[in-house]
Hints:
The protein folds into 2 domains: 3-186 and 369-385, Glycogen Phosphorylase B (Rossmann fold, 3-Layer(aba) Sandwich), CATH 3.40.50; 204-367, Rossmann fold. The protein is built from 16 helices and 13 strands. The protein has helices at residues 3-6, 24-38, 52-59, 79-103, 117-124, 142-149, 163-172, 174-179, 218-230, 248-260, 277-282, 298-305, 316-322, 336-348, 350-367, 370-385, and strands at 12-16, 42-47, 63-66, 107-111, 129-133, 157-160, 180-182, 204-209, 235-240, 267-271, 285-288, 310-313, 328-331. The strands form 2 sheets. A 7-stranded parallel beta sheet has the order 3-2-1-4-5-6-7, with helices on both faces. A 6-stranded parallel beta sheet has the order 10-9-8-11-12-13, sandwiched between helices. The longest helix is centred in the N-terminal third of the chain and has 25 residues, at 79-103.
Amino acid sequence: MTAASRRRPSHTVLVAHPSAELYGSDRVMLESVSGLVDDGWRVVVAVPTDGPLIAELRRRGASVELCPSPVLRKSVLTPRGFVRFVRTALVSTVQGSSLLRRERPALVYVNTITVPLWPVLARLRGIPVLTHVHEGEASASAVMRRILALPLFLSRRIVVNSRFSTGVLTSSFRSLGERSEIVYNAVPGPGTRTDPRPRLDGPLRVTYIGRLSPRKGVDVAIGAVAQLRDRGVEADLHVVGSVFPGYEWYEKELTETVGRAGLNDSVRFHGFQPSVWDIVGSGDVVVVPSRVDEPFGNTAVEALLAARPVIASATSGLLEATAGYRTAVTVRPDDATALADALQGTIDGWDATAQAVTADADEAERRHSVSTYRRRIADIVRSAARR
């Protein structure tokens, strides 16, 4: 008899998540949920808003509860944002406590450190907490890093997605780093790989996937394409992703930049896409031009899984995610010229790159195996929930 079959069906894990979208940490959480469902747990996921994540959670066998939750974002530092944060916290305390009373979970799985109220509510009811850390804000002040890390002391177990993120925790509180366990993100690849073009006839096809925000450096990618054009090198940029609410000004700024540079025929905005594989497969190279620290580099790994070379900023978790791959190149952050040089280098070395991408894709599949990730998460949760 397996551990899953011995466990009473009423045993529940409640997963607290800060959004209902389908970006990096959202997709990793889906694999955590699948691992728990496969292990026999009843999984309830609490999200603050409606969104595309909900249908995918239900498809994987989880129940979903809409429950407001205060989320730590930069807007909290403004007077209006702080008032909104406090108001949401009061409502969340009532509804979150009610949800915990009703579900009586064996464990609360807090996905990211941006929802600090859930560990408090769980521990007040004597429920063990596991926190999965997806953040690594090394550029934040020491005081801010310590404030963000404080709720982790309420966690029985801490899972961290990279050595870099562990280092950030250790720099705040050494004991937290010592209690953390690294589990690299599960990153599913495409159902079928599309071979790269044997020859780069026509413009170089560049792809950006991710949030549209200043920290992600989308404008740097646009600047690099503009520089290539000035050098007489043809390149098209396909931008896949949307903005956080409140950052609409940045999207407008990007479109205005494209217009002023005369790149309307070379830069296309696709908005959010539930699946990116067709766009990645029709492209030649993926760029990850982040300006600031990234705890890991899911997009870089996705490019490699799709058998596409990747050019990423030489910073934080991106260095960790791209290490050891022949077709991964890193460049100075916030430097459009360095990115343009690397893109031109991709063209010049295309024959060797096209031959090496298959081996890199195979290695990425091994490192970020979905099945291995699911088993590890299930084992950790089972251990943390055992009283």
